[in-house]
Amino acid sequence: MIKILVCCAGGFSSSFLARNLKRGVMEAGLQNEVLVDFKGFRGSHDIVDQYDIMMLCPHLRDQVQDYMNKHEKEYHNKLENTAIYVIPAQMYGLMQIKELYEDAKGIIEIFKKEGGHPTHFPGEEDAGKIKRNKAYYNVYKKEV
User: Fold this and answer.
1) How far apart are CA 75 and CA 32, in angstroms?
2) For the chain, how big is the Rg over CA atoms in Å?
């Protein structure tokens, strides 16, 4: 089972998204494959190690490194096994659980091979320039 933590700045938009995604998990029959929770990014350091991936709302893309540097002690050793991924803006509002799940699986595999935070797909180093609204491998048909 993949455990996903969705985060936004205050937890409000991520909580709305997480509720929709949890409903989508049930409708898609994925309840044995994926767990989705949410929390505000600023308070995530105390639980991040319980998840395989932390998926951030697009508006946090410019704050990730600064926040991690500021809270280095809280995140120290907690992110060894947790990928951080910025959700593309085009996907954020229309997020479908199957698309999110596909991106989560791909990012986790890349993170296991390459490490680094935030983790991104090839050619998507600048999260602000991503135009796709579906999972990376559903758009580009590439293998991890």
Assistant:
1) 28
2) 14
Of all helices (H) and strands (E), which one includes residue 38? strand 34-40
Q: Which two tokens stand for residue 124?
A: 């998507």
Q: Give SS3 for 36.
A: strand
pTM of the model: 0.88
SS3 (DSSP) at 93: coil
Enter the tokens of residue 89. 């803006």
Task: Kindly state the DSSP code that residue 18 receives in the 8-state scheme.
Answer: H
Question: Alpha-carbon distance 48 to 56, whole Å?
Answer: 12
State the amino acid at position 75 in one-letter form: Y
Owner of token pair 């998507």: 124
- Contact present, 1 and 34 (Cβ < 8 Å): yes
Across the beta sheet with 53-56, what order do the strands follow?
34-40, 2-8, 53-56, 83-86
**Length of the chain measured in residues:** 144
**What pLDDT digit, counting tens, does each position of 32-83 carry?**
999 998 888 877 878 989 999 999 988 888 888 777 777 666 676 777 889 9
